[in-house]
Amino acid sequence: MADYPTMWNGPGAMPPAGGTAAQQTAPPPPTEPPAEPVVGRRTLAEVTVLLDNIEHAVRTGYQLEEFHEGVRATYRWAVGQGPSPITDRAAGIPDAQQLRAEDDAAEAAMRGPRRRYANGAQHAAMWLRGATQDQPWAVWET
Fold first, then answer.
1. How many other β-carbons are positioned within 10 Å of the β-carbon of residue 14?
2. Closest CA to 128 of 58, 73, 61
3. The whole model's pTM is what?
4. Would you say 117 and 70 are in contact if contact means Cβ atoms under 8 Å apart?
5. What are the backbone dihedrals phi and psi of residue 21, each rounded to the nearest 5 degrees, phi first?
């Protein structure tokens, strides 16, 4: 008879000393917070660098298209500098659930008059939450 980790789970039975095989091989839970603050799957520093680059582009005369306005607004929200671009949530670094809600709201908003703005906001939210690896802002000259 094979030794299954759940076989001890019967009436009056005791778990094996040291826990089940899965418990014995599982890594210990983290004792420290992540080394860098994150928003979704991206580091706050990574998003800040991109936002700074967008702001630099605007300062040097680049006219943002509506799509990139949506990206900019989403990144500003992600670093706590403004409200969310579609649902107008209060400023603050969003959690995974808020990023998903903003992504869903942007999807619905793409059927409206500001679909390009909503598309930029959705793409940025998707990148932040790790749903795509395609970051929507092409870095401006540095």
1. 7
2. 73
3. 0.75
4. yes
5. -60, -40
